[in-house]
Specification:
The chain is an alpha+beta fold. The protein folds into 2 domains: 78 residues, Glutaredoxin; 121 residues, Glutathione S-transferase Yfyf (Class Pi), Chain A, domain 2, CATH 1.20.1050. Helix content is 52%, strand content 9%. It contains 9 helices and 4 strands. A hairpin with a 2-residue loop joins strand 3 and strand 4. Helix 1 packs parallel to helix 3, helix 1 packs across helix 7 and helix 4 crosses helix 7. The longest helix is centred in the middle third of the chain and has 21 residues. It is globular and about 45 Å long. The termini are far apart.
Amino acid sequence: MTATLYLGTKNYSSWSLRPWLAAKKAQIAFQEVVIDFDQPNTKQHILAVSPSGKVPVWVHDDLKIWDSLAICEYLAELAPQLWPEDQATRAIARSVVAEMHSGFVAMRNEMGMNVRAKQRTIALSDAAQQDLARIEQIWTELRGQYQANGEWLFGKFSIADAMFAPVVIRLRAYAVNISPIMQSYVNTFYHDPDFQQWIKDAEQDTLVVPRLECGQA
């Protein structure tokens, strides 16, 4: 039986994008079911499949895995190439993944993921600007060290790239200044066919959730 990945609305659900993209890049077969946010039956539908009451959730037979990073780690057990091969490099990758998973709260709150938004103006707090500066530092250091191995953070695509994918969308959605290195990394995503499929799906979705809209068009 093929696994099923239950997702939130693709335009807004940053956490859903991460394991979806990891599975696609690892060529792991799955069916997807989108549960739209803020609908009368949203909570009921999510609770029917998710022990945490949140999406995403990976379901395979009797196995349920919730939380984006937990799903990605499970996928990496099926497809070890989702982590760098070298032990030391893999440790660095896990460090930046953990930092993304637990940090950058101000940026998340002030720059919600919104695929359909394009260069909206937004006033960022000092904390959000510091988050962006730290992300720039991470990307710049990793690209400087691993660029000879490919276009992703560690050369080849890894879970680290999946975790930062929603940030890439945010940088297109809002009018913020980014460095040439950051722009090059953003371009890597927008030239990727799997990532482009998510973008296409999200742009075709007409659902608007007011509480998740921010910035001025």
